[in-house]
Amino acid sequence: MKVAHFGNFSPNKAGIHTAAKDLILAERSIGIESNYIDYGSEPDCTFSRVWMKDGDVETVSPEWAINEADIIVHHSAIPPQVEKTGKPTIMYLHGRPEYSFMLDWLKKTGCLREEIHRTTLPQYKKFITFWPEHVSYWKYLLPNASMEVVTPPVDLDGYKMEGKIYQFKPEEKGNPNILICDMWREDITPFNTIIAAMVFAEEYCPMAKIHIIAVPMPGQSNPVIDIMFGNLRKSGFLGHISTVIQNLDEIMRAADMLVSPAGIETRTVLESAALGLPIVAGTGNELAFFTADPRNIKSMTEAIKKCWDKIRDKDRQKNKINVRKKVEQKYGLEKTGNEVKRIYEGII
Length: 348
Description:
- It is a single chain.
- It is built from 13 helices and 14 strands.
- With about 350 residues, it is α/β, with parallel strands linked by helices.
- The protein has two domains: about 1-155 and about 330-345, Rossmann fold (3-Layer(aba) Sandwich), CATH 3.40.50.2000; about 175-330, Glycogen Phosphorylase B (Rossmann fold), CATH 3.40.50.
- The protein has a six-stranded parallel beta sheet with strand order 2-1-5-6-7-8, with helices on both faces. A six-stranded parallel beta sheet has the order 11-10-9-12-13-14, sandwiched between helices. Strands 3-4 form a two-stranded antiparallel sheet.
- A hairpin with a 2-residue loop joins strand 3 (about 55) and strand 4.
- This is Glycosyltransferase.
């Protein structure tokens, strides 16, 4: 079986790329010939970079999909010449349903309407989500879609506890080191979790430092973000601040806990947990040590405090090993690979 994955090849910049890459590795792990074709977000999707490489995954040309692939996988865009082949196509719904809705509602993109349109095309056989929590939403947004759920792919050999550890500058380092690294999206941002972490530091632990990654780049952010971070810096609780970076795994190894608003196992949560990082997250997150409604500052602050109380005087390495074991019990490339293989075989 040969499977062609189309997406915007963007290492270290977007969770959709990492998920697509790990999905390819999952398929390869159980014998599927799977390749990545770069087809990004330029106008009319007119380019394909065949020289890109991310670990063991290297991009190939669209001709491979046209001439050899049995199944086409849609992550972000597919060239018209490939769609015209009529080959069986699967679309992975990477984003949260509300995010797709908000992009369309705010008239930033027509992504939801495009997804609805694809459910009417005969070559689109399946729509797949990684989160069972999203199925009810998609049921009403895409009522004609044939929906499946598979376990999120995560390369546990690629995300190891052992590895390079980021060295915070003396003025950045705290105890604990709290990491916040969710993207700022239309449906959810780390706004509330940042404030909760600040309140935790102020009320319970003045030695804490809060490290925030994926802050919108200058020129791309609204001025209020600059104002907000200017005010946060005056507290003295901010540590390392950065936009999207390549060595996030190193910072995750250096942190003592992750704080996320996510109520599901997003890429941020999965990768952090695979590296053994204790997690405080939104209600319902099964990989978190403690959960709370991120919009309830008091509850989220208390959840952060409970996590710190749990790990503060204990063997932190042992805690990290336990987090990693929990991920190993539920996730793995072969597990995801076998799940998607069953779906693919049902199509061809």
